[in-house]
Amino acid sequence: MSELSFAELGLDPAVLEAVSAIGYETPTPIQAQCIPALLAGKHLLGVAQTGTGKTAAFALPLLSRIDASISEPQILVLAPTRELAIQVAEAFTSYAAKYRNFHVLPIYGGQDFYPQIKGLRRGAQVIVGTPGRMLDHLRKGTLKLGNLKALVLDEADEMLRMGFIDDVEAILAKTPENCQRALFSATMPPQIKKVAQTYLSDAVEVKIESETRTVERISQFVLPVYAERKLDALTRILEVEPIEAAIIFVRTKAETTLLAEKLSARGHAVAPLNGDLNQRQREQTVEDLKRSKKDIIVATDVAARGLDVPRITHVINYDVPYDTEAYIHRVGRTGRAGRTGKAILLVTPRERSWLRTLERATNSPMVAYELPSPVELKKMREEQFESQLLGFSEDKKLAKSMALLDEIAERNEMDIAMVAGALACWMEAMQPGSLPLEQPEALPVVSASAPARRDRKGGGRSGEFRKGPPKGGYKGRGGSGARGKPSGKGGKPAGKRPPRQSDAKR
Hints:
Pfam families: DEAD, DeaD_dimer, Helicase_C. It is an enzyme of class 3 (hydrolase). It comes from Marinobacter salexigens. It is a single chain. The protein is of the alpha/beta class. 38% of the residues lie in helices and 13% in strands. Strand 12, helix 13 and strand 13 form a beta-alpha-beta unit. The strands form two sheets. Strands 7-1-6-5-2-4-3-15 form an eight-stranded mixed sheet, with helices on both faces. A seven-stranded parallel sheet has the order 10-11-9-12-13-8-14, sandwiched between helices.
């Protein structure tokens, strides 16, 4: 069933258009099973680990069933943390990009009530938030659920662990009887089972088994990096790593072409591999990689399925995969035919919580990847230059070249050493795309296995290097303001404003 396309699942045309524009190709297993059930209006109980594509599994079908012309809450999503609430809100905004006058409002503790109340008064079709703050608005009467069509509990077991379960049940009790409900949880402890039995009678059950595997012969590394510095980090990795051939994984078809163009401009022999290429083009790209005509392939998960090229020494996850199976599939593209391989994952601060899930899936911890210091990089470049230079010392054309340099020196009354120096400068200038020797400033050292701690003033997690969304939430097409963008700039550290109300649970 996972081989179905999104078009075959019966999604609303506007939602399908947004999905296509994002570049999603085929649904993940949980999406393929959940979307038809939720489109049919059934309650759903999903048991799946983080990183299986749950957000799209409930967002796409629920958006397909609402009336976008009504500016009142129709979908309510409860998330255990501010971080997850913002992430889900951004996803909804992307999926609803083709709707006009569509609003998604995230509400969570640690943020002033006023912009949230203002956003609720203005009207929003989707509300995403933490249980404590959501219950506050219900008690104040600022959040009304009269037109609510669907409610989603995301990561229910995490809500139980954090002490939110009473608030969750209080919210569920206030929802209309005919409201569609979906609950997602990685585990199913007794209290969560009780909630499901009480509020999700006759629910369709979807269980996605997440297999734990050991990835042998593959060394796994993680490099924390801010989103806007990922290309710089990738460029330096490609410069310092002894790569014979590499495959770089991104999430969307559009990104394969864009990133391939940027790397090509830096002098790399690179080609994109995505679902828009026909079978002959794909085969030719893979053949070019095998025959060393290309050294780097930028691919999506679907396009690289079954790719078997023994000379691939490195897999670089430029974008974090949506699920653990995809990660295992990706890193398995190296270490083929009994050879060793290296996998490097670029992770932004807000994606740190995925690391532990991926480590559990592979039964292998990730080692922090360290970029060379400016001093080490300078020495490395000098050694590479010397090696390249000495490689021509036995060339058959050496005598002819030396005679040419002697003529240039004599004609211009220059010392031969000066001519050699000028030639070295010219060769260095011809080196493609080398980064400056300064260490990139936005590459913080973050432990791969460090637990993400809950922020006492708003239910967020430590390691969050950005502000929340703009005041008034996110807006779909037809609204003012940036759609689906965080108010912080590109994930850079945002100045903290003391909240007016601090509540450990909200």
